[in-house]
């Protein structure tokens, strides 16, 4: 029973009033009866594509209008629908025209009254033929709560308020996968307009909406929605992750069955957690990269220290050799001068010697002079080698200088060739020099670049000697071809040998520290690694390698003519 019925029953009988009062109270009773009958009668409204075609007087009075004409004068039927329910109503009207009255139960909807207040109705929709064209007929009955259930709406409001206050999105489905309820966080997380999917809406409608806005990409609609619907049909609790394309949120979705056959789906926004996890992973990767770089730098420093110690040892030996070489060169020159003086003193005695004796004396003098010249030549040659050793033994970090590149290459070639021959007297190789005259001078660190070249030449000599010993071909001739070339703002040095070469797997690892193809004890695996660091990092050049196994190997160094000096720290950052 509603409030008006209770009020009618509470009125005193008409016999207790005077005639004038009884007439007034009779009119009051009539109005109450009228209002009760109007509330119980369904109101009708017919519309097509929003335009109102018909409205019953009953519905007009239920909505607080004086006449049906006032309702029909509205711009369209959506003027009666609150803004947050308009999308759901449009969808319901479209389904009614397409599918007919498939909903067996009334929908609970709300409408604006004439005074802009909200009135709730039970709604039934039915397609009708109006004027030869299809239209939608709504039958609206004002909701009248039973007295016994007077507290149910209040309890429902409290429950909905509690669900809306939850930090997670909540969606409840019945056994037929129709929406029974959802909180505001669910609509926010999925970027749905509030009230877009009212209770009773198939969950497939939400998936169709997602597909239309492009959430699933270019995939078939029907098959995709059908497959997604099956994911709700779970026997136990299932967790999954999903990213909402429209806002980038990452949701942890938990689907659980209910005892009544329905389902509860909760969505937890884990975007911030994923972001923090990604940041931590990136920070870990950066820390590992920095640690690796520090270890490599430490190893480089150790190697540099060893090289510096070796350079100091080489410099000490070279200095010790230089003193006796100076004596050899000086005494060879002095002996030549003394021999000339002695011949000048003995010249008057020539007439007292017979022809045979004079011939023997001349031969001895020529031999002595030839030997002295050879001593002087080889002494100067040994002196040049010692100077090259001293230059090469100077540690890294030397001064950047404008250097004659061809001369530097020739000096390194001579030094390495003589070093190899000192270890193996039987070794000889053909050296083909193709130095371009226009290479000219290049700004570099001579000591470091000399170390690179000596290392490359030594490796090439090792390769050709190894092939000579293993190929079994007496006609094989070890050959090195050294080419320098000017290329505008750059210069190049190419070292080509016809040695044992390298397979591709070795070429890929060639500049890795401590990687070597030489037998144990013959190579440290550091020469090419340090050479690569000097060429690429220090001098900002390029270091290329090409090779065919058992045929040839070629190392190509390309350097800019002018480069800004770099510190060790800067070299490690590049």
TrEMBL record:
Residues 8-19 have a biased composition (Low complexity). Residues 273-304 form a coiled coil. The keyword RNA-binding does not apply. CDD domains: HisKA. One of its GO terms (molecular function) is phosphorelay sensor kinase activity. The keyword Isomerase does not apply. It catalyses: ATP + protein L-histidine = ADP + protein N-phospho-L-histidine. Residues 1-22 are annotated as: Disordered. It is an enzyme of class 2 (transferase). Its EC number is 2.7.13.3. Gene3D superfamilies: 1.10.287.130, Histidine kinase-like ATPase, C-terminal domain (3.30.565.10), PAS domain (3.30.450.20). Residues 316-563 form the Histidine kinase domain. Keywords: Coiled coil, Kinase, Phosphoprotein, Transferase. Pfam families: HATPase_c, HisKA, PAS_7. InterPro entries: HATPase_C_sf, HATPase_dom, His_kinase_dom, HisK_dim/P_dom, HisK_dim/P_sf, PAS, PAS-like_dom_sf, Sig_transdc_His_kin-like_C. This is histidine kinase. It comes from Azospirillum lipoferum (strain 4B).
């Amino acid at each position: 029973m509603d409030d008006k019925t209770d009020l009618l029953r509470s009125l005193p009988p008409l016999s207790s009033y005077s005639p004038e009062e009884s007439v007034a109270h009779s009119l009051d009773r009539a109005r109450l009866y009228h209002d009760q009958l109007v509330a119980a009668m369904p109101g009708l409204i017919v519309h097509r594509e929003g335009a109102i075609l018909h409205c019953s007087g009953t519905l007009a009075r239920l909505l607080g209008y004086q006449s049906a004409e006032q309702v029909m004068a509205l711009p369209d039927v959506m003027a009666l629908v609150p803004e947050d329910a308009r999308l759901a109503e449009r969808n319901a009207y479209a389904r009614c025209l397409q599918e007919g009255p498939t909903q067996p139960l009334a929908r609970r909807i709300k409408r604006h009254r004439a005074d802009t207040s909200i009135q709730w109705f039970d709604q039934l929709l039915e397609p009708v033929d109006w004027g030869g064209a299809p239209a939608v007929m709504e039958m609206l009955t004002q909701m009248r709560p039973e007295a016994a259930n007077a507290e149910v709406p209040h309890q429902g409001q409290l429950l909905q308020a509690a669900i809306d206050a939850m930090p997670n999105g909540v969606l409840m489905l019945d056994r037929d996968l129709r929406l029974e309820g959802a909180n505001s966080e669910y609509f926010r997380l999925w970027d749905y307009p509030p009230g877009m999917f009212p209770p009773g809406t198939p969950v497939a409608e939400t998936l169709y909406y997602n597909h239309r806005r492009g959430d699933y990409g270019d995939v078939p609609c029907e098959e995709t929605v059908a497959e997604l619907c099956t994911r709700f049909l779970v026997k136990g609790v299932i967790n999954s992750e999903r990213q909402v394309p429209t806002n980038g949120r990452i949701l942890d979705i938990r689907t659980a069955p209910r005892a009544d056959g329905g389902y509860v789906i909760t969505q937890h926004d884990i975007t911030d957690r994923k972001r923090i996890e990604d940041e931590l992973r990136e920070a870990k990767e950066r820390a590992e990269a920095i640690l690796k770089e520090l270890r490599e730098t430490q190893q480089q420093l150790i190697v540099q220290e060893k090289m510096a110690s070796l350079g100091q040892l080489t410099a000490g030996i070279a200095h010790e050799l230089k003193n006796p070489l100076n004596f050899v060169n000086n005494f060879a020159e002095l002996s030549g001068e003394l021999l000339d003086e002695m011949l000048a003193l003995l010249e008057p005695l020539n007439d007292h010697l017979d022809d045979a004796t004079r011939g023997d004396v001349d031969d001895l003098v020529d031999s002595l002079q030839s030997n002295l010249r050879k001593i002087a030549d080889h002494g100067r040659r040994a002196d040049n080698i010692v100077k090259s050793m001293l230059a090469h033994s100077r540690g890294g970090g030397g001064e950047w200088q404008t250097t004659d590149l061809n001369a530097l290459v020739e000096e390194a070639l001579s030094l390495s060739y003589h070093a190899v021959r000192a270890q193996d007297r039987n070794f000889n190789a053909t050296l083909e020099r193709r130095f371009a005259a226009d290479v000219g001078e290049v700004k570099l660190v001579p000591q470091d670049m000399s170390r690179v070249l000596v290392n490359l030449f030594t490796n090439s000599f090792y390769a050709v000697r190894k092939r000579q010993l293993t190929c079994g071909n007496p006609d094989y001739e070890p050959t090195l071809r050294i080419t320098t070339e000017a290329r505008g703002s750059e210069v190049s040095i190419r070292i080509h040998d016809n040695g044992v070469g390298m397979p591709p797997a070795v070429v890929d690892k060639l500049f890795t520290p401590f990687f070597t193809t030489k037998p144990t004890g013959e190579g440290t695996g550091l020469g090419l690694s340090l050479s690569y660091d000097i060429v690429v990092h220090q001098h900002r050049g390029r270091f290329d390698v090409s090779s065919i196994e058992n045929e040839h190997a070629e190392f190509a160094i390309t350097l800019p003519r002018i480069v800004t000096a770099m510190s060790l720290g800067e070299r490690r950052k590049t």
